[in-house]
Amino acid sequence: MKPIRWRLTCPRNIPLNTRIELAIMQTLTRFAGIPFSHDHPFNYSEGKQKLRLLMDELKRKKSIQKLGVDPNLPGRGAIKSFKGWYVWDFMRLKISKGAGSFTKYPHLTIGIHAEEAVALITLPHAVKYSIRKKVFGPRQAMFNELIFSIARNMNKVVKLDPSVQPYAQVLQRHYPNQSSPAVEDAVLRYDLRTVIGDRKRKPQKYQPEWLETTYAGMTNKKSDRYDCGKRIVKVLPWPTALVTPTKPRWARAICSTIAKPNPVPPSGWRTT
Question: Most buried one in 95, 124, 204, 251, CB count within 10 A?
Answer without folding.
Answer: 124
